[in-house]
Design goal:
Elements (H helix, E strand, L loop, with lengths): L1 H15 L22 E3 L10 E5 L2 E5 L2 H17 L4 E7 L4 E6 L3 H11 L4 E5 L4 H13 L1 H6 L4 E6 L6 E5 L2 H12 L5 E5 L15
Parallel strand pairs: 5-6, 8-9
Antiparallel strand pairs: 1-6, 2-3, 4-5, 7-8
Helix pairs in contact: 1-2, 2-3
Keywords: Signal
Length: 210
Amino acid sequence: MYRERVVRLLLAGALVMTAPGCASDDDADPSQPAGPAGGWRTAGCEFSRPPHFTTLGSRRLPATPPRLAAAMERIDRGGRERFADSFAGLEVDQARVRAIVYRVPSEAFDAFIRSSAEDSCIVVRNAAHGVAELTEWHDRVVADLPYWSAQGIQIATVGSRHDGAGVEIGTLDLEKTRRAFHSRYGDGAPLVLVEEGPVRPLKVDPPRLP
């Protein structure tokens, strides 16, 4: 299960983190809520490494080196099993051959990251919330979906953000949902509302008979 989750992260990182014109290390994505400042890097970040690629048919695609992928899997597994109050999530930056770990500051988890990284480059960034807290909020909102439907509020998606900013809620009516959520969950709820319509299944044409 952990290997499959990391593989999905690696594929997502290939699309997001290697796009041309990507922001520098210290730049934040202006389209996303700002997270807490601060962080550090492992010793492996002192060395530059050439990007890895793989060939799929006629296409040359970015790839994650096995040692970095293994380090990410160790950190993801340990973060979820042993440091869920601190660990928020991670992503891969294949262009710079590194991973980015988001976590609520914790000396114990930081020591675990250093040990798990070995010689890989791991950039550690501060997060507002860990997976334990976000999982509780995620499950609470999902359990409330029938209630929200009865209130005329349509929730399209619910998912915890890997950067620890909160649980992202997709809805068509942002203002109505924001007022209703504030009334039910209060000001301090780590919920990030985004405008998003219902997920529609892909239309697949039936195979033609010979």
